[in-house]
Amino acid sequence: MKALMPRIEIALSQIRHNARILSELYGQKGISLMGVSKATLGEPSIAKAMIQGGVKFIADSRLENIQKMKNAGILTQFILLRTAFSQAESVITNVDISLNTELETVTELSHYANVQNKLHQIIIMVELGDLREGILPCDLSQFVKKTLDLSNIKIIGIGCNLACYGGIKPDNQKMSELSQLANGIEKEFQINLEIISGGNSANYEWYESAQQVGRINNLRLGESILLGCETVNRKAIPGLYTSAFKLIAEVIESKEKPSLPFGEICQNAFGNVPTFLDRGIRRRVIIALGRQDILVSGLKPNKDLEILGSSSDHVVLDSNNYDLKVGSEVKFNLDYGALLSAMTSPFIKKQFIGCS
After folding, report:
1. d(CA 141, CA 126)
2. Cα(first)–Cα(last) distance of the chain, in Å?
3. Quick count: other Cβ atoms within 10 Å of Cβ 133?
4. Which residue in 119, 193, 222, 271 has a CA-CA distance of 20 to 30 Å to 337?
5. 71 near 91, Cβ under 8 Å?
6. Domains of the chain and CATH, by start
């Protein structure tokens, strides 16, 4: 059978292994994991591998992904990482727990929870400096008070997001602040917060150095499980696989050409005026992959290849030390951005390996 091109090969056994190692590691200090599936477009096979590895919840930012996983028979508690006022009815229908920061949205959730006669659980996100989403700590008490007045809504926890939009590092100070906020809310309102979600794959360094984790008992992990690394310095986590995803594309041209274009240089297809270094005659390879398919900057070729640039449908490589023929395959490792775009692209086939 002719190989599919381009394709992403997904080693489910490696994802399952990573989930198991991380579940055991964080579990030593009483921290459960949400496996974040959004980078894989809610692929049910990957969610299943995470669950088999020990994650307690599956979390995604898209309702469509959660619906796909549920329709595929994935049985777990689903967490919606991003709510929208206009989607409140569907959230109540499809989601067990949602993360929230706006009272108007929680009020709408309450309305549809009453209509559907369901109890909907929420985790309130607190702003600790990254400036993506969250309620300022000074406003948290009033938010909780008003939420407690809403019917069919249960506050089960608080959480924070760090090292995402603003790149703010999760450290002992931030985690201590979240723990103190949890204690304060429980004392003020005489409620029990089951989940204190301290962050994401960026929390590995904090966890490894922390003598005590305080009230933190949950993390939301995507990249660590999928790509085997933490996200503060993008270092590999010991014992994890870092190549569960491989992107494979076909060589469609392989020729020796000048490295410096000839003629008057103007804007390229994306509105930039490119610059070039004259390196003489080099072997240049084009693969059948482009910006419409992938975040090219997130591709990691082997040491014999260098990415020179890309257009909508082509990636140009310098392969002067590597003789590639037309029709041959080129393999790439991926960073998180490239994984996200590859899994979203309808032009890149998904092929699962190691399914047992």
Report:
1. 11
2. 22
3. 19
4. 271
5. no
6. 12-227 (3.20.20.10), 245-353 (2.40.30)
Based on the residue annotation, tell me whether 169 is a catalytic residue of this protein: no
Neighbours of 329 (CB within 10 A): 14
The DSSP 8-state label assigned to residue 239 in this structure reads T
Cα-trace Rg, the chain: 23
Neighbours of 192 (CB within 10 A): 9
d(CA 283, CA 322): 9
- Alpha helices for the chain (secondary structure H): 12-27, 44-53, 63-71, 88-94, 103-115, 137-148, 172-189, 204-209, 223-227, 336-344
> Out of 2, 29, 38, 48, which one is annotated catalytic?
38
- Any bridge partners for residue 331, and if so which? 248
Each of the 356 residues of the chain gets a pLDDT tens digit; together they read 567 889 999 999 999 999 999 999 999 999 999 999 999 999 999 999 999 999 999 999 999 999 999 999 999 999 999 999 999 999 999 999 999 999 999 999 999 999 999 999 999 999 999 999 999 999 999 999 999 999 999 999 999 999 999 999 999 999 999 999 999 999 999 999 999 999 999 999 999 999 999 999 999 999 999 999 999 999 999 999 999 999 999 999 999 999 999 999 898 888 888 888 889 999 999 999 999 999 999 999 988 899 999 999 999 999 987 889 999 999 999 999 999 999 999 999 999 987 65
This prediction's pTM: 0.95
